[in-house]
Amino acid sequence: MTQARPLAFAAAGLSKTFDTVTAVDDASFVVPAGKVAALVGPRGAGKTTVLLMLLGQLTPTSGTARVGGPGSGARQGRQSVGAVLSPRGLHPARTVRGQLRVFAAAAGASGARVDELLTLTRLDAVADERIGGLPVGAQTRSALAIALLGNPPLLILDDPVEGLDPGESAWLTEYLNAHAHRGGTVLLTSRTLSAALPIADELIVLDAGKVTYQGSPARLRRSHPDRLLVKASSPIALATTLAAQGFTDAVMRPDGRLAVAEASLAQLESAAAAARVQLTEITPEHIHPDQVLAALTRPTPTSYPAPAMYGMPR
Fold first, then answer.
1. Is the pTM of this model over 0.70?
2. Dihedral sign from CA coordinates of 204, 205, 211, 212
3. Lower CB count within 10 Å: N or C terminus of the chain?
4. Are strands 258-261 and 227-232 parallel, antiparallel or unpaired?
């Protein structure tokens, strides 16, 4: 029997109200240790508010937000977390190296650790440049380097792909997956599914503060599959034959086309021959991940207050 993984992050009935605006509404989810989980939703969905409650920087109106997991040891709970939130909390006049040294002194990290992180986050080439003059991607990597100073097992990252180019995104994906493979856990946010899917092996979708989905990307994809759109001489006869062959996910569209999931072109043609149906047009319909997100959420323009300084491992 496989032993269940301990939970690294958990929310139960979590709610947060600002005056008359509910930012998070009875949200419940769990993130097992050793996972990279993505909290996904449009701007104003409540993602950052959830992170701040997990970090103890906001008090829930109701419910609980819990942080724990392997590696906490004597540094129990939030002290084992490295966080990168928005805004990044970086001093624009400091150099990258100088900014890391300021936080390293507070965290008890050595100068050697600073140099190690500059190399790890690929900032060594710009280490002596002022942060204010760097591109957004380099600033995000600077904030990540600060969060990693104490080598925390748990990472909370608010929109970590912001401003990253494809090469930087690929590096981040590789690093976070390796961190999880070593037993660490990551909870990150993303405004798009397309950005989260390459990184995350667990998804939590937020819509106006409510959790509308939690599970694997594969399970979400199965509920929103690509389809073949078919014009046929008798779509009903074709659908009946497909169902008899095990292809039960076929939907009649208003324009008379049959939208068929999980069947290949060859299987579709074979079913048409068996049903003695003529196929007049077949068009692939590829579902973009952000179409799936749009089906699960509705955009909300509301923004919420947040503390100014982030990135320090606690």
1. yes
2. negative
3. N
4. antiparallel
